[in-house]
Amino acid sequence: MLKPEDIQPGKGYNCQFVIKNIPLDEFGRPGGMMSLADLPVKSVGDYYGVGDIVTRDMDSELFEVEDHKLKKKFVVPFKDTTDIREAEIVED
User: Fold this and answer.
1) Burial profile 2-22: b = 16 or more Cβ within 10 angstroms, e = fewer
2) What is the spatial distance between Cα 77 and Cα 73, in angstroms, rounded to a whole number?
3) Which pLDDT score, from 0 to 100, does residue 88 have?
4) What does the alpha-carbon distance between residue 26 and residue 35 come to, in Å, rounded to a whole number?
5) I need a surface site. Which of 38, 40, 57, 60 has the fewest CB within 10 A?
6) pLDDT digit string (tens) for 49-67?
7) Other CB atoms closer than 10 Å to residue 24's CB: what's the count?
8) CB 45 within 8 A of CB 34
9) Of 42, 67, 39, 38, whose CA–CA distance to 52 is shortest?
10) Contact (CB, 8 A) for 27 and 40
11) Computed from CA positions of residues 29, 33, 36, 39, in that sequence, does the dihedral angle turn out positive or negative?
């Protein structure tokens, strides 16, 4: 498993992440202002996802991560990410 400081520019990486204390819809997805769907907020909780690391800011210790399932980008603190790995390239 890699650490944020191990990431090299020009290579692809992905990770697991958690967004804490956000509004969630009935399907457990980010809701309210964080959603384009017109579904009511059912609860407040944590959203767990897996995504590609798009940007890394070492000064602020933040990643921008694009969630694989939702195709949405989130800003996530380093401390809320796990299992950082180099992305595998899949060719058709």
Assistant:
1) eebeebeeeeebbbebbbeeb
2) 13
3) 78
4) 12
5) 38
6) 999 999 999 999 999 999 9
7) 21
8) no
9) 67
10) no
11) positive
> What whole-number distance in Å separates Cα of residue 8 and Cα of residue 89?
16
As beta bridge partners, residue 84 has 2
Q: Is 59 in a helix, a strand, or coil?
A: coil
Count H helices, E strands: the chain? 0, 5
Both structure tokens of 20 = 């804490």
9 phi, psi to nearest 5 deg:
-55, 145
How many residues are listed for the chain in this entry? 92
DSSP track, 68-89: TTT--EEEEEGGGEEEEEEPPP
